[in-house]
Design a protein that fits this description.
single chain, about 80 residues, mainly alpha, Monooxygenase
Amino acid sequence: MTPLYIGYAAAILGTICWIPQALQVWRTRDTRSLSLVAQVLFLVTVSLWLAYGIMIVDWPLILANIVSVTAMIAIVTAKLKFK
């Protein structure tokens, strides 16, 4: 298996884990169990990984972190909206 395939596999698995959380938060409007600080820190983290991926033109990093940033924005927005 080439490193590119490993990168895409890691990107897919690391990204899809946030989609169910984002969907659940928006469906139930229940964010009590989520820490705003933790969610914002993770949003900053994936944003920095996205910037890094863009700088080095690493498509698995770029694509995965576009999805992760989008999911985290949805989660943070829900946390702020549904206090």
